């Protein structure tokens, strides 16, 4: 583990809902056909929604080969959406809570104290709902050694300490892009090579839900799904209360 980095995300407890395990994968081809049509129309948000729907169906059906195929158009839709956001070079700094009516405009947003990660997540999801291309980074207070923690939160928390922007009141688009890249890189660097493959897949799915703007995360998940398909793996019946898998407690029991 490199100095200044939090514990690798893959070592933390991960709560993965298994309620969708009853779903069927019958509609995957039709959903992906619609997603590909959306890509051809350059309807990136619609393509992303449809690909995510197909991905959930494929995971519920343990169809890891389909998951791998779905991840490629999902990655492309998100890449195009992010490129649209970065066409707007000026970074908007957000320090006040998001209250309605709140106008989400295309571009780059840096969420900083006193706001926290939940506000950045709210902004990102609001932009997706309204089909507005944005890139959102949340930073926390500088550390004593003058590093800048950036964080993405959801069912998992990803945090990495990076160099602060050279101009704190006017961060560059390049700094924003680097922050997004380093968040995803932290996930990959923290993966445990000995981790159960299905747990890794579910963990990567959770990380992509929290931080969808990292191409290599999609590629690592794609490769993991290919390997699961090759092995013919199936998800075991849930054994913990409430239909959740807690990675940390499961590791303690094994």
What keywords describe this structure?
254 residues; alpha/beta; five-stranded mixed β-sheet; 8 helices; 7 strands; 13% strand; globular; disordered C terminus
Write a structural description.
This protein has 254 residues and is α/β, with parallel strands linked by helices. Helix content is 48%, strand content 13%. It has helices at residues 28-40, 44-60, 64-86, 117-130, 173-189, 197-210, 215-231, 247-253, and strands at residues 15-17, 91-94, 107-111, 134-139, 148-153, 157-162, 244-246. The strands form two sheets. Strands 2-3-4-5-6 form a five-stranded mixed sheet, sandwiched between helices. It is globular and about 50 Å long. The relative contact order is 0.16.
Strands of the biggest beta sheet: in what spatial order? 2-3-4-5-6
Can you count the beta strands? 7
Q: What count of helical segments does DSSP give?
A: 8
What class would the helix/strand composition place it in?
A: alpha/beta
Beta-strand residue percentage: 5-15%
Q: Work out the helicity level.
A: 40-55%
Distance between the termini: 24 Å
**Rg computed from alpha carbons, rounded to a whole number of angstroms:** 18 Å
Stretches where pLDDT is under 50 for at least 5 consecutive residues are 1-23, 240-254
Give a short account of the largest sheet.
Answer: 5 strands, mixed
Shape: globular
- Secondary-structure element string: EHHHEEHEEEHHHEH
Average pLDDT reading: 87
């Amino acid at each position: 583990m490199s100095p200044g980095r939090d514990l690798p995300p893959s070592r933390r407890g991960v709560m993965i809902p298994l309620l969708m395990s009853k779903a069927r994968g019958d509609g995957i081809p039709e959903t992906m056909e619609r997603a590909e049509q959306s890509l051809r129309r350059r309807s990136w948000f619609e393509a992303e929604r449809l690909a995510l729907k197909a991905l959930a169906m494929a995971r519920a059906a343990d169809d890891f080969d389909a998951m791998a195929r779905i991840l490629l158009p999902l990655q492309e839709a998100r890449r195009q959406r992010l490129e649209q956001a970065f066409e707007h070079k000026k970074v908007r700094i957000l320090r006040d809570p998001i209250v309605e009516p709140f106008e989400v405009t295309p571009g780059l947003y840096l969420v900083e104290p006193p706001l926290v990660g939940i506000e950045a997540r709210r902004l990102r999801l609001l932009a997706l709902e309204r089909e507005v291309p944005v890139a959102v980074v949340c930073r926390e207070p500088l550390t004593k050694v003058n590093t800048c923690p950036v964080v993405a939160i959801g069912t998992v928390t990803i945090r990495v300490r990076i160099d602060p922007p050279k101009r704190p009141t006017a961060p560059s688009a390049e700094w924003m892009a680097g922050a997004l890249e380093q968040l995803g890189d932290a996930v990959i660097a923290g993966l445990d090579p000995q981790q159960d493959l299905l747990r890794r897949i579910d963990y990567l799915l959770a990380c992509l839900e929290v931080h969808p703007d990292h191409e290599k995360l999609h590629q690592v998940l794609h490769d993991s799904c290919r390997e699961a398909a090759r092995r013919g793996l199936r998800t075991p019946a849930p054994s913990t209360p409430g239909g959740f898998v807690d990675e940390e407690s499961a590791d303690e029991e094994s």
